[in-house]
Design goal:
homotetramer, 318 residues, alpha+beta, Helix Hairpins, Immunoglobulin-like, 2 domains, five-stranded mixed beta sheet, five-stranded antiparallel beta sheet, disordered N terminus
Amino acid sequence: MAKRLFKNNSNDFKDLGFGTQIKGRRMLNEDGSFNVIRKGVKGQSIMNLYTSLITMSWMRFNVIVLSYYLIINLIFAALYMLIGKDSLIGESANNLQDHFWNAFFFSAQTITTVGYGYIHPSGMISNFLAAIESMAGLFGFALATGLLYGRFSRPVAKILFSNKAVIAPYQGATAFMFRLANLRSNQLIDTNATLNFSMMVKKDGVEKRIFDRLKLERDKIDFFPTSWTIVHPINENSPIYGMTEDEVNESDAEFILLLSAFDDTFSQTVHARRSYKHYEIEWGAKFPPMTGDPENNKTVLFLDKIDNTIKAELPTSD
Amino acid sequence: MAKRLFKNNSNDFKDLGFGTQIKGRRMLNEDGSFNVIRKGVKGQSIMNLYTSLITMSWMRFNVIVLSYYLIINLIFAALYMLIGKDSLIGESANNLQDHFWNAFFFSAQTITTVGYGYIHPSGMISNFLAAIESMAGLFGFALATGLLYGRFSRPVAKILFSNKAVIAPYQGATAFMFRLANLRSNQLIDTNATLNFSMMVKKDGVEKRIFDRLKLERDKIDFFPTSWTIVHPINENSPIYGMTEDEVNESDAEFILLLSAFDDTFSQTVHARRSYKHYEIEWGAKFPPMTGDPENNKTVLFLDKIDNTIKAELPTSD
Amino acid sequence: MAKRLFKNNSNDFKDLGFGTQIKGRRMLNEDGSFNVIRKGVKGQSIMNLYTSLITMSWMRFNVIVLSYYLIINLIFAALYMLIGKDSLIGESANNLQDHFWNAFFFSAQTITTVGYGYIHPSGMISNFLAAIESMAGLFGFALATGLLYGRFSRPVAKILFSNKAVIAPYQGATAFMFRLANLRSNQLIDTNATLNFSMMVKKDGVEKRIFDRLKLERDKIDFFPTSWTIVHPINENSPIYGMTEDEVNESDAEFILLLSAFDDTFSQTVHARRSYKHYEIEWGAKFPPMTGDPENNKTVLFLDKIDNTIKAELPTSD
Amino acid sequence: MAKRLFKNNSNDFKDLGFGTQIKGRRMLNEDGSFNVIRKGVKGQSIMNLYTSLITMSWMRFNVIVLSYYLIINLIFAALYMLIGKDSLIGESANNLQDHFWNAFFFSAQTITTVGYGYIHPSGMISNFLAAIESMAGLFGFALATGLLYGRFSRPVAKILFSNKAVIAPYQGATAFMFRLANLRSNQLIDTNATLNFSMMVKKDGVEKRIFDRLKLERDKIDFFPTSWTIVHPINENSPIYGMTEDEVNESDAEFILLLSAFDDTFSQTVHARRSYKHYEIEWGAKFPPMTGDPENNKTVLFLDKIDNTIKAELPTSD
């Protein structure tokens, strides 16, 4: 009995990790991240610090680094002032009237190890503080070097997806399609696509989310030089076969793509994800080509044409 | 004859590398490392130096780096003193009375390349020593940069495991279960689980350890956004089918999980291991959900609920 | 009906991503890159900046770095001059007459953090500017460190291909052959080859490009110590079986190799690509060995013999 | 006819890339590298520079770096002397009598960016030279940082192999065995072994090298915590079945192991290779265990016992 039950519930084993009760909200965000918040564990921000610093925008990264530089110098300047007026000597007397700014610029000269020497520490405590500060400066700089390299060298696929999927005529029937292109000049090879599907289904009065993997016309390409149109032919094996546009919308349907490729510039495997909700599907449309006339004997790809669609009559079901 | 023997002893070929005589001690430690000491080879600590420096705690790493900085400066200060009082000149006379501390701070200014210049070397030998020291400083700093980057960028899966496994009711029968969640915000995909099992078996009066791979309800998930409950259904194919709690405890049983996943932030495959000994199993319990009400249209995962279990009556075997 | 059409057009699913209308131009350039231009997206050069800096020649990279160093110093020198004559003081007065060059060299001393101190900033604004410049210097240097490491450590297969393929006699019939060798001393293992083929075909008066994967005598070698001759036997299963040299030339044929191997020095998978157009095929030739007499008990491989071919009569088709 | 020939010569397709005429010399050196010299291409040493600097011994690497530091300083010292006595001014007059050593130490202070300033450049040309030198110093240091990190972080399997293989009694018959252990404390998982075999065979009076892949008792282990004995059972399917010790020696036999594993500390796949020539086989011996009594509830592995063998009578063939 347990055995039979085990076999019949095979849909439970395809829930993608989101559970069967999720309704009315995306599973994947537009940027491909999971639509999930983690709670209940302290130290998450520390644990994710490197990941955050590596993945944040350059603007934000630079602001953080400069702020950090400013704050550290303010702290050390305050410490030199605490030690006393005689902690820093040299020509500074006739240079800057303000003791604080003297200390501040001395700190900057120490932490960057530029060390002009026209201001320099005097006495045990300030010498010790300067030794610590220059050491800290080197360490901070080592951190920055690592972070900059980490930011640059992280292999990320920059894939451009069409912002809408279409239901297009296809070989006498219809197909679900969207397309994608490689934004970067990195060469992608061995590109694989996996398309998952999910919708709410009512059975015996209970609503439940089901999951399925969709068959693709082609799920692997050796090279990915131009654009690739992902095509799921809607035939008897498709879970949306025979459904109307309204039925698909009511079912809270979501199509989830997982793309993997070998990036030949970084010699590493990269991934991209994209989900299309039912309201991101255009019914009765198809994608015109993205390539133009060859130039200098080269194929030309127009990346700004990726969202172009043209109306295309769907075959009537009869 | 040799042929037949070869076929019958197939259990020997699944010993996981721990041998068949291990008893009463864990094979895997709680942190997933092998419970093994290596002896008889010199230079192990040198060979494992990088690994140690990369994997030790930040606290310990910082203490080691600071101690090293202090010791190097003490050594060079001693060397400058050995050369003589005139080795370092400049304003230092009226700065620090103590020649040793003068030498110490000059060393710090040299090794960090801050080089204020208010103290500077005089004479062939001290100039040469300072040239060596600044070079050594750059090298040490290059090492630190590499180590810091190595520590940060090492792709490690931070998987949170439930501290107990349970024997839970499952589809009219029972199943062995435990659960896990991704602690970090890194996105894990293509997650695979392999569950090995081992126990002592008495045959013809001889006790011997046997090994087996356990069938899982699901051994692969495309996405790993929330938590994952690993389920081994206890049916006729399970090596613990029909055993009582006392029999499992006496057999010195150990369940060993090997988890692999693709970390999409680092674009690398990561692994995690966890073993459950018989005394870490709770009989007649099940795991309540870890997710709560959605917030801002996002699924919420409570990581602190991972160890929660609730009593659940097991079906009687008849 | 839709079903039958789906099965018959299976050639459409092997178009390698170049489409079926490409004619008279290479799909792959000689260096293995795709013969494609991307247009229509702004910011491409920023996005590809790291890739460019990592893959450009050393000559160009060094010129860019030195130019950048020069320009930055010119800019800061101009800024110090804008602040005024008193912005930089010290012995400079009797050193360089020209205020601009004083500022320029002070800038160089600041950005490299060498900071002799014989020229130094005076006043709030120039001190602040110097603090910013030394910080920028460290940052620029961190960038350079990362780029240099990225350039060095990028795992790239340096594969030497014969510049011509041959149609050679082979086991009583003929075969399409070319050969390749590992230029570097890195050890390549688990080497795999995939050979794709494409030509124009006229059907019902319409010309269309078809694609096919060619069978190889051997498509995988465990080790790659010397040279490897890729052999496609031309038998009934080959798309060029029965074609004459003129027919192959008129069909605008292109043979595309995709090679992958595990580089044991970098512990990473590397790839190489090479295409042969019909005009790069020598009919009736074969490759003589590239190895010579052993020296010091070692096999000797002559890499400069890779392009050597000798005439070889092809069997007549009867 | 061509077809039949193709099928019969299947041994040609397993030549491992060494050809069939290699005799009396190893294919793999003891360290696992290919026993091959590459000739005929210029620039090989430049192309392999990074690989050499990354793989050479620490002793040699440090000597090269220090020599380079010395030579660069000598060159710059000579250049400052060429410019003239007035190129470097400051307290140097009463410091070092020798102008050359003054220039030498100034160069060291500049290239390391320590820049005390008590000697400093004077005049356009020497200022320019110093600006170039400090820039070059930063660049050289960036290179050193990258190289040091490259040396440390390169994932290399340190596998200890028994220096002899044995022909041991095995399940009533015999087997070819050798063993290996992980020298480092890194955790290896998913370890795979492939054993290739090669010997000279005389056929119709012509001697030719044949290649074969040997069946192993077990070719994959999930974990590799202690030691692993590779076992090739010598039964009817083995190419050396029925051969005597003398016949094996005369055939110039070589056993070649290719090992791959996932290193869990570096999260990368690592490889090791080892070949055993016929004269490295001990007939009639077996390996005693390498583990000792457990300490602190931990299994103890004695790595120095790896070469231990004990005599073991082989079953007579009748």
